[in-house]
Design brief:
By secondary structure, this protein is α+β, with helices and mostly antiparallel strands. The protein contains eleven helices and twelve strands. The strands form three sheets. The chain has a five-stranded mixed beta sheet. Strands 6-10-12-11 form a four-stranded antiparallel beta sheet. Helix 1 packs parallel to helix 4. The radius of gyration is 22 Å and the shape is globular.
């Protein structure tokens, strides 16, 4: 037996009646060609989703996942934990790779693989202790272009400092597509929650892909409304356990996007001021205002879904080039729900001790980044 489970994971799964099985793998190598032909090329000028590329990537991810599940069936497992779904570039081709660790349960032998989950053994322990039963690994993705102006008005407005509303609306709508799609996939699986969502934004052939992965799950104590619009949460399952122990339950992943331009005049002022020491007040104020706008958007989003508070908020700043800056805020709205409780009075230490990385290959990482940069340049031209 060869497993990807760590010692801490083995202990946690044993506490819930599971034993380790083999590492299971599925993959598929695709040629991305010219990325959706001339139609996609034209769409990149205005910004927004590139539907052809989204679907191509989704097809590859799903194919790799299903092949991993088929391998797990051959091992007659009770489930697959720690599922990841990666993109690996091989020159101008991309490999979709799905990996997980099969687990067994005493007295069970099921070729249908009752569940698959992005949660590792420790996270699965916490999830089960909260009463959430995993159903299947799910993802939602969107491939998109930032564009060259979000339309003529966006281009003109980027000449002066302040928010570029057209850009903000376009990227906010595009990024929320990933939430909608992972939620829809979970609903199709019969889930009323998507837990442990992880969000990745990565460059892809001169464009970008945003993908959310998580576990479609079911809790019998949740109100019926969540069967129509499942809970979405990017709290770790350990964090979720603590939140539920305090009487709350995650209900909605919330996100806000704000695009600001330093403007032509602002750029010149900042350039001249950079020759001397001291604060560049124009940039300080602009980035502060962008953060405030992004945070106000997640507060409004959370209120619309009936959340009492927003926790685990993280903010990120991205330089989009051309004097444009994106501020992204993301967190999880929580609400008091009396029927959702933890089973154990305390989490066991093995569920919260992080495993240390024991192997690092920075040379390979740098080579991969260099190849992606080369591929992006080739296709961009």
């Amino acid at each position: 037996m060869i497993t990807g489970l760590s010692g801490n994971e083995l202990f946690c799964l044993n506490e819930k009646g599971y034993t380790p099985g083999n590492l299971v793998i599925g993959n598929s190598v695709f040629s991305l060609g010219f990325v959706g032909s001339l139609t996609s090329g034209l769409k990149t000028l205005g910004g927004g989703e590139i539907h052809e590329l989204t679907e191509l990537i989704r097809e590859g991810r799903e194919m790799a996942y299903m092949r991993m599940i088929e391998e797990a069936r051959r091992h007659v497992g009770a489930g697959v934990t720690g599922v990841t779904n990666q993109l690996i570039f091989h020159d101008t081709n991309v490999e979709y790779l799905a990996i997980g660790s099969a687990v067994h349960r005493d007295g069970e032998s099921n070729k249908d693989i009752p569940f698959s989950t992005s949660a590792n053994g420790q996270e699965l322990y916490c999830q089960l202790d909260c009463g959430f039963h995993p159903l299947r690994f799910v993802f939602g993705n969107v491939a998109y272009s930032i564009g060259i102006g979000g339309g003529v008005m966006g281009t003109l407005r980027s000449l002066k400092a302040g928010e570029v509303v057209e850009f903000s609306q376009m990227l906010n709508k595009t990024r929320h597509l990933a939430i909608e799609r992972i939620s829809h996939e979970a609903k199709e699986a019969g889930a009323n929650a998507v837990l442990g969502i992880q969000t990745t934004i990565a460059p892809l052939l001169g464009m970008q892909e945003m993908v959310m992965t998580g576990t479609a799950s079911f809790h019998e104590g949740l109100p019926a409304q969540f069967s129509e619009v499942p809970i979405t949460s990017d709290l770790t399952n350990e964090e979720m356990w603590n939140v539920i122990a305090l009487g709350y339950c995650p209900i909605r992943l919330v996100m806000g996007v704000s695009i600001f331009s330093i403007g032509f005049a602002g750029g010149l002022k900042a350039m001249f001021k950079s020759f001397v020491r001291g604060e560049i007040k124009e940039l300080t104020y602009m980035i502060y205002q962008a953060r405030v706008k992004a945070l106000s958007m997640i507060a409004e989003d959370a209120e619309n879904f009936g959340a009492d508070e927003v926790v685990g908020v993280k903010t990120y700043v991205y330089d989009l080039g051309g004097g444009m800056v994106e501020l992204l805020a993301i967190g999880t709205g929580i609400k008091k729900l009396p029927n959702i409780k933890v089973h154990s009075p305390l989490l066991i230490p093995q569920a919260i001790i992080r495993d240390s990385e024991t192997f690092t290959n920075r040379a390979a990482t740098q080579a991969t980044l260099a190849r992606q940069s080369t591929v992006s340049t080739d296709f961009g031209d």
